[in-house]
Specification:
homodimer, about 180 residues, alpha/beta
Amino acid sequence: MKAEIIAVGTELLLGQIVDTNSAYIAQQLTTVGLDLHFKSNVGDNLERIKSTLEMALRRSDFLITTGGIGPTLDDLTREAVAEVLNKPLVFQPHLFEQISAFFKSLGRAVSDNNRKQAYIPDGAMPIENPVGTAPGFIAEKDGKAIISIPGVPHEMRYFMDHSVLPYLRRKLGIRR
Amino acid sequence: MKAEIIAVGTELLLGQIVDTNSAYIAQQLTTVGLDLHFKSNVGDNLERIKSTLEMALRRSDFLITTGGIGPTLDDLTREAVAEVLNKPLVFQPHLFEQISAFFKSLGRAVSDNNRKQAYIPDGAMPIENPVGTAPGFIAEKDGKAIISIPGVPHEMRYFMDHSVLPYLRRKLGIRR
């Protein structure tokens, strides 16, 4: 089975940040025996994220996206995934409760922008985020899956270790 | 005008090396006003390098490839560029002389493998490499260009500063 990494973010594309996430994800994917043939960086642009996802879906089985699921207007990964899969984004009250609780634990109020983070593509499995605000999700279609996780490095690592790798091991029938 | 970076090498893809080259190249491309919309990593596989180049040629004007022009059998960038442009690879005696001189300066004999590095796509402009063995090249087609430079970071930086940026400034009509 083939996997592909898509790092979303104009700051990565312009070299303002070196993409260390992709290296970590790549190393982890090899531990479950997935073949990795391509990695891509794409900026915060809906059409370009969509075209990158569409191309990746044609040639790979598991797509891991990192970044672009924050609260700001230029965080477009969830919209792109929903459009590529032809699914609406659906509000998940329990995700919003967790986001609110995270802010409360910091002594801050949750903003309207963060409400956007509680939307995931219809039918996708939410992945809760106990170490930050952005929940991730796994959207399956036709035996393939798009797995969207945060771009903040310590959150990305938490998601890989606690959710993505266990999910992939289950899908690939790997016991440990 | 749009530029696109393609980093070639399985070691990058698998996360054994973090791709710092792409960040440096991206920063430099913004100094000449090029728009960068995508970056890709592809492994040492001829068909996949070719498909990545073909896709990039459809959506961008300048392609910068880094890596895959060394002396070993899995260095396939020059073959991929030649096939995508439908040009034969042509032996350049003066490039081979420079490669030989570089080895001589190190007190070593040039190997048959290094002979391969003196081949570039027919019609391409060679870029000499005074800081290593792999010459680069610029292959133009239909107003677009594929610029292939080494993946060794200090050689990549030398090529960017001394050849690629001056070439791009000329093409873009930037005086300085």
